[in-house]
Amino acid sequence: MDVRAPVGACASAANVDVAWARPDSEGEQSRLDDWCSATGKPVVRQPASAYPAGVLDREATPAGGPVPDRSDPFSNTGIDPVETLIVATWNIEVGSGDLYAFLEEQIGYSCESARNVNESRVPFVLLVQEAHRASNEIPAIPEGVSLPSAIGRSSARASRSDIVEIADRCGLSLFYAPSMRNGAEVEGEIPEDRGNAILASIPLSGHSAIELPLETQRRVAVAALAHPPGREPIRVVSFHLDVAANMLRVITTGNSTRLRQGLGLASALEELDRGHRQVATIMGGDVNSWSEKESVIRHLTERFPESPKATAEGTRGSYPTDHMFLRTVEGSKVSLDEGSYRVVPDEYGSDHRGRVLTVSFVGS
Q1: Which of 256, 204, 245, 208 is nearest to 227 (CA)?
Q2: What is the pLDDT of residues 217-228, one digit of tens each?
Q3: How far apart (Å, rounded) are the C-alpha atoms in residues 143 and 35?
């Protein structure tokens, strides 16, 4: 993978605060730029409510106390360490899923409650696929650029969840990067794009956008460092793989669409880590797998050996399409809570059910 931002017609969509990783092939990069040129810029939100009490003050005025570790901008010196972290993944069908209800009923976080009520909750990270954003800042569609069909726009606008509006309303950290336009421009309607996102009740830093090898559609995974209070950061990743390639790709690659994308993602994460402090990583996403035994799941589990066992329980109808993966590093104090990996029993308006796990922190 090539660590550099998009160029040409898509350069305006890149964000200076986001690192980029792209396939090495220049031809592939050119086609990805065409898809990207119809999308808006990535969004990063870091609300004060996502910081443990005192962190902002200490970062701004370190005099009189320990100097923060600048390799970890949210080092949380002096903050009581948390014992656990909840991580969930969910495809919300381009905003059709009721994120507010999901957060309250499955995570225990209320977007309506006073902040002090939520402070007592276990911190969480939610990895979102098919997030959507509506904004007049999304550029006009360049001439000659083909577009994917719109998803969800037939639903009432008020009933769909805009990922940026949710983050602002709920006081959550956000990293959203669009993969593609959500259909053509419609007169009188706000332009939309869709992609992957990370929502968190704790700070995020080190934002990275990873363009997967191009098969059918442009797919951009998002990665960031999540900072549980008093603990080492954990890299969290939200991703979405293609369902299938076109017939030509099937013939030329032996239908290795998802495997190629999954291995491309794993390699990009290794490239981003090179030369930096190694941290534990949790990935979650819509693999679009028909079976829990698919090769992409097997290969990702080999790369992420502490992953929960892939199960056959359906997350989109009867198909096990959504999965989570975990990799620790030497000296890591993160471990998967046995029995915590589960499928959410309700779709909450989406066409997918989410998955949830809990990790514990060992030692002080």
Answers
A1: 204
A2: 999 999 999 999
A3: 12
